[in-house]
Amino acid sequence: MALVTTKEMFEKSMKEKFAIGAFNINNMEFIQAITDAANEAKSPVILQVSASAIKYARLPYLIKMVEAAVETTDIPIALHLDHGPDFETCKMCIDSGFTSVMIDASSHPFEENVRITKEVVDYAHSKGVVVEAELGTLAGVEDEVSVESDDAKYTNPEQAYEFVQKTGCDSLAIAIGTSHGAYKFKGDAKLRFDILEKVKEKLPNTPIVLHGASSVIPKLVDMCNDNGANIPGAKGCPDEMLKEAGLRGVSKINVDTDLRLAMTAQIRRVFNEKPEVFDPRKYLGAARDEIKETVLHKINDVFCSGNKA
């Protein structure tokens, strides 16, 4: 099976009320773990690459590893650019074989966001590629995305409708209370499902995306800290809220922090428990297994996308 766009998987998700996991990749172990889990669960999956991941791993390496994953699995896989910072980065990924790109111009004023997004949409659509855009601003830090809490803004449902009409974007990331990184909430977690409901009323046929939606899995945080890490007070979106988001019409849920925690937790554990180990396959293999278990949990218990391939 070749790489696919997100169009058909999103149509199915909206019809059958489940979400699709979009998992950030950085190296071979991430790609293998995610696609092995999705293949085992018979789930569609989105592999997404940030601009920082491109700088780290280099685009040709990432693309060839994703192509290998496509050849060795039997599920729909989309290759997506996460938080594309500008037209040039989006164009590079489109021309390199990505089937989906996100242009994130959400930090700009509304009309400038529209202009930049429309430019990307026009080029992407001419190449058969779909586009995700963002309206509203999420707090938190992840790769090159950094927004102070005071600057975060919820998505305006009226603006969301106008934005989609003017840009022609294929899916829309909205801000309803999630945030990037491992420190999403100071008090109790809260998502503005009332905003999601209003956006879906205005845009019933537009797939909605949640960024900054890792659970920051407590057992992984504890494993990191028990083996020498210093990650105090990390807190994410509870699984129940993310599951409800899928049931309420969110089609794509992004996961990055949880995968980083899974890898780091196992590497630290191996280093701490077996200081004599210096074979990278020993600790990277353990990390890959933990990432796979994390993705299986998300697919089967949170996103409900198992057996939807």
Write the layout of secondary structure elements.
Elements: H1 7-16, E1 20-24, H2 28-41, E2 45-50, H3 51-57, H4 59-71, E3 77-84, H5 87-96, E4 100-103, H6 110-126, E5 130-135, E6 139-142, E7 145-147, H7 157-167, E8 171-174, E9 179-180, H8 193-202, E10 208-210, H9 218-226, H10 239-247, E11 250-255, H11 257-273, H12 280-303
Parallel strand pairs: 1-2, 1-11, 2-3, 3-4, 4-5, 5-8, 6-9, 8-10, 10-11
Antiparallel strand pairs: 6-7
Helix pairs in contact: 2-4, 2-12, 5-6, 7-8, 9-11, 10-12, 11-12
**CATH topology description:** TIM Barrel
Strand content: 15-25%
Estimate nothing, just give the exact number of structural domains: 1
| Count of strand segments | 11
Q: Spatial order of the strands in the main sheet?
A: 1-2-3-4-5-8-10-11
* Spatial extent as radius of gyration: 18 Å
**Uncertain spans:** 146-151
Give the N-to-C terminal Cα separation.
Answer: 12 Å
- Name the CATH superfamily assignment: Aldolase class I
- Give the structural class: alpha/beta
Mean pLDDT: 93
Instruction: Characterize the main sheet.
Output: 8 strands, parallel, barrel
* Number of distinct helices: 12
* Helix percent band: 40-55%
User: What would the principal axes of the Cα set say about the shape?
Assistant: globular
